[in-house]
Amino acid sequence: MGKRGRLLRNKRGVGEVLLMEAMQAVAIILILTGSMVYVNAKLAKIGLAKPFYARDAGLLTTTLYSASGNIDYSYYVDAVERKEPTKYKFQFIIADNFVKVNATESSKQNIYWYFSDFGTAPINSEESEILGGIKFLKEGNGIKMGKQISLTKNKILCSAVHTKDAAWRQNRFVMDPAHGENATDKGAVNNKDENFSESELTYAIAKRIGISEQNKIMTREKDVYASFAQRESVVKGNSNAVVISIHIGDEQSTESNYIKAYYNINSDEIARKKSSKLGCSILNAVVEYGKLDGRENIKGVAVIPSDSDYIKRIVPAGRVGVLLELGNIQIDKKDNFLADTTHLAEAIYTGIGNYYENE
Fold first, then answer.
1. How do beta strands 130-131 and 258-264 pair?
2. pLDDT truncated to tens, each residue of the chain (359 aa)?
3. Per-residue pLDDT tens for 249-307?
4. Phi, psi (deg, nearest 5) at residue 6
5. HSE (CB half, 13 Å, CA atoms) of 287?
6. 12, 113, 245, 331: which has the fewest C-beta neighbours closer than 10 Å?
7. Strand, helix or coil at 343?
């Protein structure tokens, strides 16, 4: 009986040990399973998304090639993790009849084809690796592709035009600072402070654009009224100069809170393309210029062909030039007048340089 009792007691002790070990094993399995489920969920999101975006972008590219006419299309891809929007941005490479897609934290790629026949031009990729989204521009039988602009800054893809010229600073430019319609009209007022008129703002900006004085022709040499006929005469008298007309209005031909560049739609194709790219380069530079606080007011950018009488007179057909509407670059107070107009002038100067130095 004594032996039997000891045996039972030993069995009870062994059972408790086995139970504790079993509970520990279950806990470990649960932890491992939970970790694997979490990791697999993350990987599944990426793994499922990559072939979807590859197929989607491939079919989109096929559709663009098949469509008639010119098309400007943005394809934007959100991050997998909405709480952490910088995680798992997708990387696109489009070339050689295939779309390649992978997440930035994954080395594996997903590939999907797109169709183009012998009559189509190969894609001109302005970016070899594109994160987050793509900007497509179909012109004729070719597609140009570039980086989709951040929605907060909303840049635009500039059409490729051969303008590269390392000595562009020697070119001549007509700077046309706009103002009101008569001697007593100072033009639009700055929305943040009515002490600033279009007349003084545009003149200050034009004077501070860093082109040398011998190559910069002003349509008015002082912050005084100059008739439109006088300004038009300066433009016509310098027929080889690029025209940049600066305004701070906000024309309603597109959505408000946009900065805009208008060019003469009646020009020949070469002048239209060059003017469009000049406007695009300037607006993108303004959006990117970190020192310019007023850029946060910009909702978007637009380059617009125009048939208005104003455009036809200030940027005559055949001339390279743009009319800039920068009404949403606001200056908050008098103390910032010098700094902010200088920064905007620097941004415009940078954009002009980008137009000439980037093919």
1. unpaired
2. 444 444 445 555 656 666 676 666 666 666 655 655 444 445 456 777 788 888 888 888 888 888 777 777 777 776 666 556 556 777 777 777 788 887 766 667 788 888 877 667 777 665 555 666 677 877 777 787 776 434 344 667 777 787 777 778 788 999 999 887 766 766 665 444 455 677 888 898 999 999 988 999 999 988 888 999 999 999 999 998 999 999 876 554 445 667 889 999 999 989 998 999 999 999 989 888 877 766 666 777 888 888 889 999 999 999 999 999 887 565 554 555 556 688 889 999 999 999 998 65
3. 655 444 566 788 999 999 998 999 899 999 999 998 988 887 776 666 677 788 888 88
4. -65, -40
5. 24
6. 12
7. helix
First to last CA, the chain: 100
CA–CA separation, 221 and 212 (whole Å):
15
Q: Residue 270: CB partners within 8 Å, gap ≥ 6? A: none
> Whose structure tokens read 């039988």?
141
For 114-264, where are the alpha helices, taking DSSP H only? 198-208, 228-237
Q: Judge residue 162's burial from the number of C-beta atoms within 10 Å of its C-beta, 0-12 exposed, 13-18 middle, 19 or more buried.
A: exposed
| Angle in degrees, CA 320, 169, 233, rounded to 5 | 45
Helix (H) or strand (E) holding 125: strand 124-125
- With H, G, I as helix, E, B as strand and everything else as coil, classify residue 69: coil
Question: Residue 173 contacts by C-beta under 8 Å, 6 or more apart in sequence?
Answer: 211, 215, 216, 217, 241, 242, 243, 244, 352
Helix extents (H) in the chain? 2-66, 198-208, 228-237, 269-288, 309-314, 337-357
Token pair 């004077």: residue: 207
Which domains, from first to last, does the chain contain? 52-147 (no CATH), 168-357 (3.40.630.40)
Which amino acid does the sequence have at 228?
A: F
Q: Is residue 292 classed exposed, middle or buried when 0-12, 13-18 and 19+ CB atoms within 10 A define those classes?
A: buried
Predicted TM-score (pTM) of the model is: 0.57
Which tokens go with 112? 């999907």
